[in-house]
Automatic annotation (TrEMBL):
InterPro entries: HATPase_C_sf, HATPase_dom, His_kinase_dom, HisK_dim/P_dom, HisK_dim/P_sf, PAS, PAS-assoc_C, PAS-like_dom_sf
Species, as recorded: Poseidonibacter parvus
Protein name: histidine kinase
ATP-binding keyword on record: yes
Molecular function via GO: ATP binding; phosphorelay sensor kinase activity
Enzyme Commission number, as recorded: 2.7.13.3
Keyword Phosphoprotein found: yes
PROSITE patterns, A to Z: HIS_KIN, PAC, PAS
Domain PAC: 81-132
Amino acid sequence: MKNFEENKFIDLIGKIPNVAVQGYDKERKVIYWNKASELMYGYTKKEAYGKSLEDLIIPDFMKEKVIALHKEWCNKGISIPSSELPLINKNGDTVYVYSSHVMLNEKSKNPEMFCVDIDLTEQKKQKDELEEKNKVLEYQSKMATMGEMLDNIAHQWRQPLSLISTTASGIKLQNDCGILDNNTISDSLGSIVDTTKYLSQTIEDFRNFVNGTHVKTIFNLFNTLKYSLKLLDGILKKNDIKVYLSTSLDDIEILGYPNELIQVIINIVSNSVDAFDNDVENKFIIIDIRKENSNVFIKIKDNAKGIDENIIDKIFEFRFSTKEKNKKSGIGLYMSNQLIKEGMKGSLKVKNSEYLHEDIKYKGAEFTIELASNIE
């Protein structure tokens, strides 16, 4: 009765389309090879019968391990767990499968191992293509962010360069007029030195952002937000926008990618800057941190009147933008969402919000970043 049930089981799974089933004896020689195995691995039943498992579909780097695992199962009863495996077909191409195993006649002298393989090659290909696409988009998004950073640096440099030029011109004029004294020289050169240090620091800040590595690290959330705003200082001043970093939680530590979070903050704040109309007075952006249990929430809201309800559900979509095509790539918020969701294992949401600020009612967009705050 047992053999009848086993044969019926083998016959049943052998007829399932797209599921490759192979049987092997104690020496790993093929004793069963269904039609799906022929299609998946390229060997006909006649070609496969009697051949060793490791000589047919096992890559070189896996052969020793596969042989050892099979012997352990036959001799010690330690079964081989189901797993995703990179096997090879007749042409030497990699076939990604999810492989499960069952041993029949396990306690006899002639155990038979059957492998049930589901082809994952197409899913793996799609996954790899998606990962590659996201890498390209992340690079493009960072390049767009760098463009905004360069504009920011240019604005930050205008006033210091003007100060240096004015100071140097003053020294030259006084020298030409014969009225230059040592105190003026000392004060003027001190001012120039301080200003050049400021210019040098803006370059260093930009370099640190560009060279940030994709390595998880523990970082202080409050300091990272302050640094992000420092990088945006020029653009914010240029557009006469005040930023309020409103929180008493300055000791929260996050395990993740600080440089990617900086990029997300820059993208969100830059979108707020773009959203302001000329008729908005007293422009401001409020950034708040709050913690609930093991999660931390970063809320970024402005008083730019909010996002059109007809498009608010689309702003994280790829290439969606309300700006002119030659001005915006449309990947900033899409990539911000990807960086938070995939890189930081958090979430990014947006809604329109009405709130009071200094007893005045305002309306604007409110972005919420949710991250895990525990670093254990």
